[in-house]
Amino acid sequence: MHRGPDAVIVLIFFFSGLILNVRQIRTGWMYIKVIIAALIIIFLVAPAVGLLFGAIPIDTGIVIGIFLVAVMPTTLSSGVVMTGAAGGNMAQALAITIIANGLAVFTIPLVLSLLLNLVDGSTIIVIDRLAIMIKLGFYVLLPLCLGLAIKIFAESFTNRFVHRLQILNQFLVLAIVWMAMSQARDAIVGGGASVGIILVLVFSFHAILLVSAAIFIGCLKLGKGRRESVIFMGGQKTLPLSIILQVSLFPQYGLALVVCVLHHLIHLLMDGYLVGRLKA
Question: Does the pTM of the predicted model rise above 0.90?
Answer without folding.
Answer: no
